[in-house]
Amino acid sequence: MGAEMHYVRPGDTVTLNPEREIAVPTGIKPGAENQRLAA
């Protein structure tokens, strides 16, 4: 689970659900999905 926070950018808002709370609003959802799948 901790690996998910690795792709979280410093400027993004850290939440309990980085892949949803961060990836969606910032528009980096595609990138986040790829990172999660690759990891």
Describe this structure in a few short sentences:
This protein has 39 residues and is mostly helical.
Question: What report would you give on this structure?
Answer:
With 39 residues, this protein is mainly α. It has one domain (11-38). 49% of the residues lie in helices and 0% in strands. The chain contains two helices and no strands. It is elongated and about 20 Å long. The termini are close together. The mean pLDDT is 58.
Q: Give the count of helical stretches.
A: 2
Rounded to the nearest angstrom, the distance between the terminal CA atoms is 10 Å
- Summarize the amount of helix as a percent range: 40-55%
Report mean pLDDT, rounded to a whole number: 58
SSE arrangement, N to C:
HH
Strand-pairing-aware structural class: mainly alpha
Instruction: Tell me the count of domains.
Output: 1
Share in β-strands: under 5%
Shape: elongated
Give the low-confidence spans. Answer: none
Please report the total strand number as a whole number: 0
Question: Main β-sheet: number of strands, strand sense, barrel status?
Answer: none
